[in-house]
Specification:
Elements (H helix, E strand, L loop, with lengths): L1 H21 L12 H5 L10 H15 L12 H7 L3 E4 L11 E5 L3 E4 L1 H20 L4 E4 L4 H14 L2 E3 L11 H19 L8 H18 L11 E4 L6 H9 L4 E5 L10 E4 L5 H18 L19 E10 L6 E11 L1
Parallel strand pairs: 4-5, 4-6, 6-7, 7-8
Antiparallel strand pairs: 1-3, 2-3, 9-10
Helix pairs in contact: 5-10, 6-10, 7-8
Length: about 350
């Protein structure tokens, strides 16, 4: 078939050349631009930044779904970009199951998470936690992989009246809660004993021993010492780092809300929030949104929801430099490597 098409086109070309040889060719008028390109209105003004373009598309999506009362724009694109929530991991570290949440690759190095998916799925998790808190459900926040995240977990859980674990996850915290509950009872008993007048009956050595036990128990289970029974929801800051908590929650059929990067497995998460888990600002922002869901259900003031971008001040990140010396060469090659992020 292709050969026949070529022959027919050659024949048409020959006929046209013969016809034009007898009669001078008339000049063809210049083609007018197609009406489609001229009539189509741009989403934003010409020369607008990528942030404005994405913001316009997100606004158009929420405008077209304004009849859905459960779907609200709880955070702006500008604030997400400022926090770096859209920056994923390197392309070679991704999980193919996260493809629906990925917009494109960033110069073939880092993957870019879809901003619209971040907002929509954050709203979905927000509504779920709000409903759970309205029914007086217990929510457990888990984040143990970073010093700043540990701090934010404690602050946000305390602010909204939830439970938290910000130190090493003890195996069986959920699946073997009866044993953990014995440690909780021991912690509460020793704490009340040290605060009472009966502590004077014990020697100083015994009192010091009790204080050490209280400090150790408070470090690991202090955030759940008032939790009576299993929680209704488990919120994790990174399902890869907190895989033990996710596994125990799934074994007990407890819903999991997780902030997941491009290397996570969304099949293990009930309410996923695709975002950059390696960004301290993103963790602070997402934890604040989830804590606001519980706070608003209890009638408490919120920190992020309902606030303007100017009122939401992200934490300042301090990059700690460390000198690394190459001892293999004759002259040590000293260079500075940014290896740690801390927040004020």
């Amino acid at each position: 078939m292709p050969k026949q098409v070529e022959k027919t086109t050659e024949a048409v070309a020959v006929v046209e050349t013969d016809a034009t040889a007898k009669k001078p060719a008339a000049k063809k008028p210049a083609r007018k631009p197609s009406a489609k390109k001229t009539t189509k209105k741009p989403l934003v003004k010409e020369g607008a930044s990528a942030k404005d373009t994405i913001e316009a598309k997100v606004n158009m999506f929420f405008e077209s779904n304004k009849d859905n009362k459960d779907l609200k724009k709880i955070i702006s694109v500008a604030k997400l970009m400022e926090a770096g929530a859209h920056v994923g991991l390197a392309a070679n570290l991704w999980n193919p199951k996260m493809a629906p949440f990925i917009y494109r690759s960033k110069g073939s190095r880092n993957l870019i998470i879809d901003m619209l998916k971040i907002i929509v799925f954050s709203n979905r998790a927000y509504n779920f936690l709000h409903d759970i808190a309205k029914q007086d459900g217990k929510v457990l926040f888990v984040g143990t992989h970073n010093d700043s995240v540990k701090k934010y977990i404690q602050e946000e859980a305390t602010r909204c009246g939830a439970f938290y674990i910000n130190q090493r996850w003890l195996g069986g915290t959920l699946t073997n809660f009866k044993t953990v509950n014995n440690s909780i009872n021991k912690l509460n008993r020793l704490t009340s004993l040290l605060e009472s007048e009966n502590v004077g009956r014990y020697t100083k050595k015994q009192q010091l021993d009790m204080q050490r036990q209280v400090a150790k128990l408070e470090k690991f289970i202090g955030g759940i010492k008032n939790m009576k029974g299993l929680p209704q929801v488990v919120v994790v800051t990174d399902p890869i780092a907190e895989h033990n908590a996710v596994k125990e929650a799934r074994d007990l059929h407890i819903p999991v809300v997780a902030i997941a990067n491009t290397n996570a497995n969304p099949d293990l998460i009930d309410f996923i929030i695709p975002a950059n888990t390696h960004s301290i600002k993103t963790q602070w922002l997402m934890l604040g949104i989830l804590a606001d869901a519980i706070a608003s259900a209890k009638g408490q003031p919120t920190k992020i929801i309902g606030k303007a971008d100017g009122e939401i001040i992200l934490p300042e990140v301090i990059r700690v430099a460390r000198k690394v010396v190459n001892v293999r060469g004759k002259q040590p090659d000293t260079f500075v490597k940014e290896n740690k992020e801390e927040a004020k």
